[in-house]
């Protein structure tokens, strides 16, 4: 590869002759690892013109660098970084103390320090990945996704690909969601009542910014999705945690002063509880009494392979009280970052303005690709295929868990992609996780789903969305061994 | 197209027999426009199973709907929405007053009401689009972008496509930016000093959230990019506007109490001024004295076809005081939504945590596609081609403006994609814009770039990035005519 002439800049403050500055600049490029062995340097003519110096100055610098083995000349083809050039150091070559800013003062707000756990990026290298929320390459419909992406890259869709939509969305995707996706949840909506977001996380974030302030209270489920808790903590509102039971959020336990209720009726995250119809109605009634809004994260509704999903809370809402959060990131693939918000137009208008300020709009090409994938029916077949395979995996998992007598806390009667587990008291599942990783088993410790320092440490989540059936029994066997070991230590 | 059985839900609160509820549900679907003429209904067996009712109930409902011409039966292939079915109304069919929420109370914060102008989405239908920041289909390297996207969609890149990166970025894109893009600006950075963002707008937004509070002051250029002003207004910090001159932001005029200085040294937006080297050094010196940070939006540096761009402010920064904002959205295409932030690792760490909370990460497939497009050299050729064409267009434009004696306020000595214009006093360029649209000419009124109600109304921006050379003279002639007309009215 040739090094582009535009990467060369003389340091205006450097000492010495022009030739020395050029030599120094090139040597530094090599020593810092920026220019690599075998890469071609610009011709002396080009570099001289670019730097505004005479050609002979550059030639002399090159010759010197050749003499000191930084460069090598090849007949008629110019100068290259020498194979014998000094090795760039392995450590950070920058002088220490370069940054003189007092960042503890300069940072106006901090966003680090949330409770979101570190998750392994290389999960697919583990033999027993009971990992949640990643794509199983054996299930994903790669060929058809590629086909749709290609179609959306075509000349006909040029505008969808390249245009700055300002604050708008791809009309084809909006139409599909309105006509086909939402009716499956019993929801009828108008185009100005929906906004495409960067996944469900972005939808929840926008909602929190628009509805909450330092003087308002959000009620959340306990345990709950940790990223939601981080979002609400950052919004600085009051937080009221309400313990869920086997039917999800109990309306009677909601504090009367809550302004906004965040709930996951389809599959409570992480316990997998599905809220029964009667409780859905009671929740709406309670919210009406409290004059509170409800944010319904319709998480995993599509992964209902055991029973048909119940209608969304939003479909029962006659007040405009429910804000609905949907996602394709989970069911197509998480890297897609595509979800949507449905709510009253006054609310959607504010979310749209905020989204425009934060990022303008989700990339048009991704919206159009998803629109094709959905409208050609590939999405439905993907969900059906996932349902069939998940049903089988779940059966194998249930059997293995029963064989080893492991404690299931929540399994979800509609399906889902994971089982919520409870280890014996005294077992720290973070420690369990660490021991299991060494044996190529990945689980998800449960502590981050709970609030505060008194969070129980003996829960964990086992997902079956990314592990083949045939590996499940061995994985559970290892889990059982390590659990038994930790339990003995705890006694 | 067949209507999926999953879009059918019985309204649990509806009156009447099961059969009547089914009829009502289907009729409503047709009347609301959700089910369209010729679409196939599910078989009675399927629908009965889905709703948990007897098959005869569904059959009776279908027969009734056929009798009333909502449906038609076709031999052996089932029921379809009839060609004679009632037309869905043109107006919004939902009963008024459905939304009972007092949104003026329920909304915690408002984000609408910024000064960002409405821009026509259908700009490409105008004959003379002097529109800024959109992609010219005749210049964009569609074939190679498609090629790179295809490569990034391949099995080898499956993980880059589908994976949830959590708070990380595509390592290939990061490496390219560090080794090739930043060195062209004289910047050396480490991987933990860079963050990929959803375009420059998202980079500016993240920066404002991390650095500014209600007790801090941001200094901005006047006039400046209106979306930046909206972002800063939303952050509720104090704003100090500093008038730019022909060399951009004058350091001597900066108020000493400013905490963060936002500037566009390469091409001041919208005046196109380039800050000379001496002033760049003076600005850094002044910021050091004030102990202020500088946010350098290195806007349009690559569109420098008249002279080589000067090194970035960031390259002269020895304190870690400068935060650098780069973008590919502008130079590849705006719908891409891809940019980056470079700054001290403490700062980048907070931005990364905030980005994770807001949207997790920009889609992996887009990052990987851009990495290929850059590393295969297509980006450089695109920029070169744009430079050549823009140079020609600019020449034609300058000539046409001179021929008509129109007032140029800022033209940028390095290149760029637009000219900043001044109409005679008394002319309102919003009115000019409206008149010109009727004649298929698009310009950008300048008022939104200025602060507050006293903003001058006689500036406008003329871009040559999306209009072919041969149309420029006629477009300018029409502009000149309408300007003369408005001027006569103003006198």
Automatic annotation (TrEMBL), chains A, B:
Q: Pfam families, alphabetically?
A: Aminotran_1_2, GntR
Q: What is this protein called?
A: HTH-type transcriptional regulatory protein GabR
Where in the numbering of this chain does the HTH gntR-type domain appear?
Answer: 16-84
InterPro entries from the UniProt entry: Aminotransferase_I/II_large, HTH_trans_reg/aminotransferase, PyrdxlP-dep_Trfase, PyrdxlP-dep_Trfase_major, Tscrpt_reg_HTH_GntR, WH-like_DNA-bd_sf, WH_DNA-bd_sf
- Asked if the record carries the keyword Plastid, the reply is no
Gene3D superfamilies registered for this protein in UniProt: Type I PLP-dependent aspartate aminotransferase-like (Major domain), Winged helix-like DNA-binding domain superfamily/Winged helix DNA-binding domain
Family, per entry: In the C-terminal section; belongs to the class-I pyridoxal-phosphate-dependent aminotransferase family.
Which SUPFAM superfamilies does the annotation name? PLP-dependent transferases, Winged helix' DNA-binding domain
């Amino acid at each position: 590869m040739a090094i582009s002439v535009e990467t060369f800049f003389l340091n205006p403050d450097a000492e010495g002759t022009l030739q020395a500055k050029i030599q120094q600049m090139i040597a530094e490029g090599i020593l810092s690892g920026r220019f690599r062995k075998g890469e071609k340097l610009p011709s002396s003519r080009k570099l001289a013109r670019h730097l505004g110096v005479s050609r002979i100055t550059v030639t002399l610098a090159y010759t010197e660098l050749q003499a000191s083995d930084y460069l090598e000349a090849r007949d008629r083809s110019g100068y290259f970084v020498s194979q014998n050039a000094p090795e760039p150091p392995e450590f950070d070559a920058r002088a220490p103390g370069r940054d003189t800013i007092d960042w503890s003062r300069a940072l106006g707000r901090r966003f680090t320090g949330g409770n979101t756990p570190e998750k392994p990026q290389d999960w697919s290298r583990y033999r027993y990945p009971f990992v949640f929320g990643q794509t199983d390459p054996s299930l994903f419909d790669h060929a058809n996704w590629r086909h749709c992406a290609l179609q959306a890259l075509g000349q006909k869709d040029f505008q969808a690909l390249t245009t700055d939509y300002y604050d708008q969305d791809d009309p084809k995707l909006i139409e599909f969601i309105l006509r086909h996706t939402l009716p499956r949840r019993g929801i009828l909506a108008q185009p100005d009542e929906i906004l495409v977001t960067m996944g469900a996380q972005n939808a929840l974030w926008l909602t929190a910014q628009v509805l909450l302030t330092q003087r308002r209270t959000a009620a959340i489920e306990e345990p709950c999705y940790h990223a939601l808790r981080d979002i609400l903590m950052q919004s600085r509102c009051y937080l009221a945690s309400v313990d869920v039971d086997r039917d999800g959020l109990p309306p009677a336990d909601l504090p009367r002063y809550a302004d906004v209720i965040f709930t996951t009726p389809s599959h409570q995250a992480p316990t997998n509880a599905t809220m029964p119809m009667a409780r859905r109605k009671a929740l709406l009634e309670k919210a009406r009494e409290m004059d509170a809004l409800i944010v319904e994260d319709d998480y995993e509704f599509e992964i209902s392979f055991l029973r048909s999903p119940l209608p969304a809370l939003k479909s029962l809402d006659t007040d405009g009280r429910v804000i609905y959060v949907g996602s394709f990131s989970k069911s197509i693939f998480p890297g897609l970052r595509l979800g949507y918000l449905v709510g009253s137009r006054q609310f959607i208008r504010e979310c749209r303005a905020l989204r425009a300020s934060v990022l303008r709009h989700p990339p048009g090409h991704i919206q159009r690709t998803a629109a094709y994938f959905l409208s050609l029916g590939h999405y439905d077949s993907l969900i059906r295929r996932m349902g069939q395979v998940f049903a089988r995996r779940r059966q194998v998992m249930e059997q293995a868990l029963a064989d080893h007598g492991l404690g299931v806390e929540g399994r979800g009667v509609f399906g889902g992609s994971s089982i919520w587990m409870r280890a014996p008291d005294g077992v720290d599942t973070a420690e369990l996780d660490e021991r299991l990783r060494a044996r190529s088993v990945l689980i998800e410790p449960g502590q981050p789903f709970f609030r505060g320092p008194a969070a129980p440490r003996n829960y964990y989540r086992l997902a079956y969305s990314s592990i083949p059936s045939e590996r499940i029994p061995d994985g559970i066997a290892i889990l059982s061994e390590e659990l038994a070991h930790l339990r003995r230590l705890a006694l």
